[in-house]
Amino acid sequence: TRFRNVTGVQTCALPISAGHDWLLHIDADELFHTEKGDASAHFASLQGAPIDTINYPNYEALPESEDIGDFFREVTLFKVPPELNRKPVTAEGVRMLQTCPQLHPDFFHYYGAGKSAVRLSVQGMEPNGVHAFTREGGFSGARSMEGAILHYAVCGFEAFWTKYRTLGAFADSWWGKYEIEASIGRFHLDARNAVAKGREDARAFYREHAMMNDSARIEALIAHGFLQRIRGLKT
Questions:
Q1: Cβ atoms 126, 133 nearer than 8 A
Q2: What CA–CA distance (Å, rounded) separates 133 from 116?
Q3: Mean pLDDT across the chain, nearest whole number?
Q4: pLDDT digit string (tens) for 185-225?
């Protein structure tokens, strides 16, 4: 495997691995999810598809508690990607979003571009950051409507505290080039600032911006298609 550095992101040229057909890049706080069968069956169904890469939308977890242990098993509430919300947009729904600091002004706290898988038998494919793949001369890609990435970011106060204590006083831009606020909104920066003030400020910020435990509001947001329960995952 040949490594190189592109705009500060560690990437590698992809090997053709015997016995492996697809590679999907996800993090330790993410799961691949499909309602039809499992990952093996899903990727087997792509065998004859004329595509080199496939992108999966991400659903961002919305924790309902400060105290979470195994978030893969305990967290079941997720933000639905706006483009996949099939409910009609209403004035009531818009007002509801605008009064939820967990969802406003930026619906997702982190990324919204999804994550992509790449077919390993395709020559010349390379990572393009952590969300996609590319090839000089072009490639064939598609967006999946069957699979999804479940992103369990900062589920539980201790996970939130540990993440931002570890990151410390990071800059307002990535590698001095990409402005964080312009890319993903204010949450990441505001979380950094809250944790820098100490545990109590950090806990107050987590309660107001990262978690939601108002059951009536949650059910209303589900009814409007902004949130979704996903249970019975195989982990």
A1: yes
A2: 7
A3: 90
A4: 999 999 999 999 999 999 999 999 999 999 999 999 999 99
Separation of alpha carbons 62 and 210, rounded Å: 7
DSSP designation for 131: T
Class of residue 188 by CB neighbours under 10 A (exposed 0-12, middle 13-18, buried 19+): buried
Which one-letter DSSP state was computed for residue 207?
Answer: I
Helical H segments across 51-185, by residue range: 71-74, 91-98, 157-167, 180-184
Question: For the whole model, what pTM was predicted?
Answer: 0.89
3-state helix vs strand vs coil in the chain, percent to 5: 30, 25, 50
Q: How far is CA 92 from the centre of its chain?
A: 27
Are 235 and 72 contacting, i.e. CB atoms less than 8 angstroms apart? yes
Q: Are 24 and 115 in contact (CB under 8 A)?
A: yes
Strands (E), 76-212: 77-79, 115-119, 126-128, 132-134, 141-143, 147-151, 173-174, 178-179
* CA nearest neighbour of 78 among 92, 90, 57, 60: 60
